[in-house]
Amino acid sequence: MTLPGSSRTLALLAVLAAAAPPRLTAQQATIAAAYGKAADSIYRAATGDSLAYLRLGRLVDTFGHRLSGSPSLEAAIDWILAEMSTDGLENVRGEPVMVPRWVRGPESAQMIRPRSAPLRMLGLGGSVATPKSGITAPVLVVSSFDELAQRAAEAKGKIVLFDAPFTDYVAIRRFRTDGPSAAARVGALACLIRSVASASIRSPHTGALRYDSTVARIPAAALSVEDAMMLHRFQNRGERVIVTLRMAARTLPDAPSRNVVAELVGREKPDEVVVLGGHIDSWDVGQGAMDDGGGSVAAWEAVRLLHRLGLRPRRTLRVVLWTNEENGGAGGRAYRDAHASELAGHVLAMESDNGAFNPKGYTFAGSDAAASVVKEVAALLDSVGISGVERAPESPAADITPLVELGVPGMEIDVDASRYFWYHHSDGDTLDKIDPAELARCVAAMAVMAYVVADLPGPLPRKTAS
Ligand SMILES: [Zn+2]
């Protein structure tokens, strides 16, 4: 990777300025001239060591996965708070949040017919249990909600399996979130889905379901892609499939957790804030290294690095590691509520929650005027390939959605997520899936954007005043 030298950047700017159109606006020239050197030194420092990776390894190996309500999540939060204080970050604190507490318990799926064999499964987060003896029933496999509607008369008393190939996450996730209640509505006893995964070595992938309060709550689990496809093939051959599903999942009373918060207080406008973060909770499988240990550590390291470099911007930089993104979103809402009186001064909320893979740029939700500023900031990293800015019509990440809905400009780091859904929400989400150099580039991407936006003379212009 060629590092951007400020002279190179200036030479490039001169070339750009000479070409018409487009011409550099005064704003563009100012950002490049004012922050090119800082961006270079941040990028060099972030990519010059493996501290982020070492820290992520310490986090996920020591505490493992971190589901809301679990002792491991709270122990991880305690450790992070202590480390942040040692780093010299300011106003380090855990802000209280009550979170749902779902506990998986023992679970299994056993094929009874056409032959006896265990199926690889993971219960869906939030699922109810089966009776102790399990649910044994014939399986009806469908590929879509439409097919379920067409075959509704066949579903009563069965286990409905949605076997839909992965296309994109948001489209296919609907089978996980809405499939269980759709199956219950036509009389199914339980629901299975093909794991929401873009590749598989027979590992099931969990995730949250969403029960519709108007129908019965039935147990629901994800099968590995391979097992779902096999059951579908049996059905296509006219063979009767019978499965026994056993799940002991329980929902316990809500439990106390915390959003992790730490700051680098602004030197001129401490009440104006740039938020950057990830979510510290994870599913109860794997290590939550990708989702979202990597994003959390990238944001934390970004601010630690700026602190170490002595780069204190005009406005406050606030790291927020939200709790309970995966099965409730309570952390994002609690942050909004706890900071309601400050939100008019929130200049930007940035999250990394697509895996700390190689960053390509940023996804931005906000006004056209703000987007043009953000593009110029991103251009500071043009020579290292992190300068893309995609516009998003809505909030690009879950934890910042409550802020974006109130007018705060929102941003997510845009990464090469081509491997993300291979491991997402599965036992495969472990440290080895993250590349130290890519994680370091994520740190740089967050640090440069957060620092410059926090230091610009004026705030990012909002769509509407709030
Ligand atoms: Zn996530």
Structure write-up:
This protein has 14 helices and 16 strands. By secondary structure, it is of the alpha/beta class. Strands 1-10-12-11-13-16-14-15 form an eight-stranded mixed beta sheet. Strands 3-2-9-5-6-7-8-4 form an eight-stranded mixed beta sheet, with helices on both faces. The protein has helices spanning 6-18, 26-47, 51-63, 71-87, 145-150, 152-155, 169-185, 225-236, 289-308, 330-338, 368-378, 401-404, 420-423, 436-455; strands at 90-103, 107-113, 117-119, 121-123, 135-142, 159-162, 190-194, 220-223, 242-247, 250-264, 269-279, 315-322, 346-351, 359-365, 388-391, 410-415. Helix 9 packs across helix 14. The structure holds zinc ion (ZN). Zinc ion is lined by residues 279, 291-292, 325, 353. Zinc ion (ZN) binds at residues 279, 291-292, 325, 353.
